[in-house]
Design a protein that fits this description.
Elements: H1 12-17, E1 21-22, H2 25-32, E2 39-42, E3 45-48, H3 50-55, H4 62-71, H5 75-78, H6 80-91, H7 94-110, H8 120-138, H9 160-171
Parallel strand pairs: 1-3
Antiparallel strand pairs: 2-3
């Protein structure tokens, strides 16, 4: 784990971060030889493509931010309570659901090269929901991870969902 995301008191944040371990450099090299991503979670292993992140202009504790972001993939296991609370809030928030629909349309129609073929709900549960949560915490013009610099608090996080994200932020001590 890294210093910036380490909680002084343990608890929820430690449980979330403890839900993944970093893959070895050899495992990462093998994956990123054929998978062009910034990061990935497979089971309880987090793979961080440091070379790509650095090459694309990531700065500061971008590895720590990526570990937190990737750990959110397993929030349903590390904190089912918070996963369900956040997911339920997102599901009832019209702004978030419109954003979900628009984003899915983008990855299936506007970006057909991406090859997204999963049904919308599976895509949301496996790939997008944790990205939206992570974007709220890690995004902004000064984000360490360069790909998160277009994620701002002005995105359609809605009202109900934003309220739960703020409660989650307090719960993890951020």
């Amino acid at each position: 784990m890294n210093g910036a995301w380490r909680s002084a008191h343990g608890g929820l944040l430690e449980a979330i971060l403890g839900g993944v371990t970093r893959a070895t450099p050899e495992q990462e090299a093998t994956l990123f030889n054929y998978h062009d991503a910034y990061g990935e979670v497979i089971g309880d292993k987090a793979y961080i493509n440091e070379a790509k992140l650095k090459d694309k202009g990531s700065t500061g504790d971008y590895v720590g931010d990526m570990m937190f972001g990737e750990a959110l993939h397993n929030l349903d296991k590390t904190s089912p309570y918070w996963y369900n609370r956040l997911r339920t809030a997102a599901q009832v928030d019209d702004d978030v659901m419109r954003w979900k629909d628009d984003s899915y349309k983008h990855v299936t129609q506007a970006m057909p090269i991406a090859g997204e073929s999963r049904p919308k709900e599976k895509w949301w549960d496996v790939s997008r929901f944790d990205q939206v949560v992570g974007g709220y915490f890690l995004g902004g013009k000064d984000a360490n991870v360069s790909s998160m610099r277009n994620w701002g608090k002005d995105l359609p996080f809605g009202t109900t969902f934003r309220k739960e994200l703020e409660a989650f932020k307090k719960a993890i001590g951020r």
